Amino acid sequence: MVAMPAALEEGAMLDTFPRLLRHHANVRGDRPAMREKDLGIWQSWTWQQVADEVAAMACGLAELGFKRGDRLAIIGDNRPRLYWAMLAAQSLGGIPVPLYQDAVAQEMVFVLQDADIHIAIVEDQEQVDKLLEVREQCPALKHILYDEPRGLRHYTQTYLHGLDEVLAMGRIHNTNQPDFLGQEIAQGKTDDVSVILYTSGTTGKPKGVCQTHAAFIAAARGSMLFDHLTDAEDILSYLPMAWVGDHLFSLAQAVAAGFTVNCPESAETVMIDLREIGPSYYFAPPRVFENLLTQVMIRMEDAGRIKREMFHTFMKVAKRSGAEILDGHPVPAIDRLLYALGNLLIYGPLRNVLGMSRIRVAYTAGAAIGPDLFRFYRSIGINLKQLYGQTETCAYVCLQPDGQIKFDSVGKAAPQVEVKIADSGEILVRGPMVMKEYYKRPDATAEAIDAERFFHTGDAGFIDSDGHIKIIDRAKDVGKLAGGAMFAPNYIENKLKFFPYIKEAVCFGHDRDMVCAFINIDVGAVGNWAERRGLAYSGYTDLASKPEVVDLIRDCVGQVNAELATDAKMAETQIHRFLVLHKELDPDDDELTRTRKVRRGFIAEKYAVLIDALYSGKTHQFIETEVKFEDGRRGKVAADLSICEAKVEATGKAS
Hints:
Blueprint: H1 6-11, H2 17-27, E1 32-38, E2 41-46, H3 47-63, E3 71-75, H4 80-91, E4 95-99, H5 105-114, E5 119-122, H6 125-134, E6 143-146, E7 160-162, H7 163-176, H8 180-187, E8 193-198, E9 208-212, H9 213-227, E10 234-236, H10 244-257, E11 260-263, H11 270-277, E12 281-284, H12 286-302, H13 305-326, H14 333-353, E13 361-364, H15 371-379, E14 384-388, E15 398-399, E16 412-413, E17 418-421, E18 426-430, E19 437-438, H16 442-448, E20 455-463, E21 469-474, E22 479-480, E23 486-487, H17 489-497, E24 502-508, E25 515-521, H18 523-532, H19 540-545, H20 547-565, E26 575-580, H21 600-606, H22 608-616, E27 620-628, E28 634-645
Parallel strand pairs: 1-11, 3-4, 3-5, 5-6, 6-7, 10-11, 12-13, 13-14, 25-26
Antiparallel strand pairs: 1-2, 8-9, 9-19, 14-15, 15-16, 17-18, 18-20, 20-21, 22-23, 24-25, 26-28, 27-28
């Protein structure tokens, strides 16, 4: 263990992540800090071991010339050494800059250039190859360090180094200069930038969000206090390290509370690893909960008749009373009895299959979750709650108190957070979690944070009589139909995506006389549905064009319209016409961000011919679209798309 000046060890506040790490090494040194599944076996590191590894990595980076204020790129799946790299950079007063591991090489260029990256730590050969491809465009990049050496034996570039080599250098450095790292950690200030997280760039180039140690520690401690999190929690860390949600849960909260972070073997084994770990605390964006529900529904469709009928019968009981029982609200005795039986036969086994038997609290954030999806999980006994925040607020603005869950709100202002609604309807927030600045963008910083230090979220919403914040949509996306009715596309899209057969939806309607929609089918769910009906298909495009599939989606749209018709504010925004897209919307084609948010402006421009067809009354439209394949090749997908009329419910007004 690296030495630290006694005065700092005894008297300093635990106000930076390196100091918190040393604290845990001292008070719970033999407790597990991280686990990783490798070749089917869980490996474990204690807090003492993590502190030692971080110290060696920090000193190794110092040997390579990394110094205070430098930025360190980190690219790869969730791996212990990549999290340690963040702490190593912070120990030297540097700033980690995680990048999305599934980004193609050219997407990485902007961040590498903008952040002036000199050293990058990556997971494996795939990420090394990406950086080699663009290195000439990033002349500042001097060293590339890799964790997994497989496939790299014959790479001869002198600027490539294995992390084992760097750690060995660091241990020698630490032996020769035992006071070096302690002095570096002592120089760290709580208002130093601890990480730069780049926004997803839905409307333009990403912006680097500079967050301090103080901001993320305040967010971590506030949420720990709110949900009574302790050092006994277990979480599964599987979401992109470049996403603010993962940084809050897997690094900030873990290092603040001292609980255990578990890294899965691969993206393909996440569900198996989730069941093995049985986390007590879980976090996922809505799309993960949507996918899990889709898998459940597919399995139920494949089940025998008796099992299927029993599932649907008890799910009606759960929908009626499950959420109320979870919140401790009064429920008729017969429903309570039926729910207990359902818990024995259906809900308990279902939670076990999902790996959620031990979950005490689960959160979703990153996008709005549909009320129906939200209710489903709470109805089967999973304490799922919504978290509201942005990259610029450490993903920490609103939290939902136990026993006060509203399906259409994101909860109340979190501890130390002030929320107010501007005259325009935009949500403004202030608190210790607000970013320091956008990196090298004083203009954007001044636009986002006003003179009173309120951050302008860009979301439209209101505060109800109970103090709960309700989000309508992104302020820039909320519009009006030609007849004056409010148009909130995300609200409608979430209702569509509750159906297991619909993976993505994009709605249009601003300044138009009706709402129309693009639909992406879920190829797994619809493929399973088709196979059970003997429908042969050759791929996504063929499946999406089947008349039977179009009718299936028409029924889903009709059900959404029936729900919208009962809502006085949204009744006029029922979907009149729709089409099933011939390809899946894809981040590689710039249609979605890496966090799978729809890039509306880009899609509207790219598919303008389809939008025109929807609104001009056509019944078919031919389109040919260029796509990018995973290996970098480009191709084209063409189809003659059917444009369909949806069943629209009467609303008392002429439509």
